[in-house]
Every structure is written in structure tokens, then in C-alpha cells.
Design goal:
Number of helices: 3
Structural class: alpha+beta
CATH class of the domain at 41-105: Mainly Alpha
Order of helices and strands: EEHHEEH
Oligomer: single chain
Largest sheet: 2 strands, antiparallel
Domain HNH nuclease: 51-103
Pfam families: HNH (PF01844)
GO molecular function: endonuclease activity; nucleic acid binding; zinc ion binding
Protein name: HNH nuclease domain-containing protein
CATH architecture of the domain at 41-105: Orthogonal Bundle
Strand content: 5-15%
Distance between the termini: 43 Å
InterPro entries: HNH, HNH_nuc
Number of strands: 4
């Protein structure tokens, strides 16, 4: 009888399944931190804001499109490695992007 591989642990499973029983039982709902109501609940502290302001003061233009911020498209702090992929709020993980470039980028890290 043909078998399939579990998409998480690579164990052999029936062809009709995508994951083994152990992996299915170990999977719980992920916390949806990004849907929290305020920035502190999402993990953006006052220290994050200070780090972003310092980064913008050092580099007052977007790293991607090189435009300066304005009221309709302000400069923002961006995580080089997204927090959803293990990035931190440290200054070394901050880059300056305009709102358009930051929104277009999403949570792709590089």
C-alpha cells in the first residue's frame, strides 16, 4: 500500500493523510498577537519607539525607494527579520522604510 510522509516529522502515514497523529495532537492554535488592540500588547514598547526615532534621525530616508517621509507617506521602523519569524526589537534589527515600502514588504525577512 502506498504511503505518504508527514509534512512535519517525515514519518510514513497513510496516503489520505497529510500529518501523523502525534503532529496533529501537538498542534494548537497560535496566539494572534498581531491582532491585539494596542501596540504594547503587540510587543512594541516605548524602547522600540525610541530606537525607531533614533534610526530615522540617523537616516531620514527610505532604505528601499530613497524618498523622504511626508504626512501622506511617513517614515516607519521596519524589522529586518520580522518578529513573526523570530526577530527582535533591538536596534540592529531596525531599518527605516516609508509606509508604502513597509506595507508592500509584509513579513518577508532579509
Amino acid at each position: 500500500m502506498p504511503n505518504n510522509m508527514c509534512s512535519r516529522c517525515n514519518r510514513l502515514i497513510p496516503l489520505s493523510a497529510t500529518r501523523c497523529g502525534a503532529c496533529i495532537n501537538n498542534t494548537g492554535p497560535k496566539p494572534r498577537v498581531y491582532k491585539a488592540k494596542n501596540r504594547h500588547a503587540r510587543g512594541y514598547t516605548n524602547q522600540w519607539l525610541k530606537n525607531v526615532k533614533a534610526a530615522i534621525a540617523l537616516q531620514p530616508y527610505c532604505s528601499f525607494c530613497l524618498t523622504r517621509g511626508d504626512n501622506s507617506n511617513p517614515l516607519t521602523g521596519d524589522h529586518r527579520i520580522p518578529r513573526s519569524k523570530g526577530g527582535t526589537n533591538s536596534p540592529s534589527n531596525i531599518r527605516v522604510l516609508c509606509r508604502r515600502c513597509n506595507s508592500r514588504r509584509g513579513n518577508r525577512g532579509y
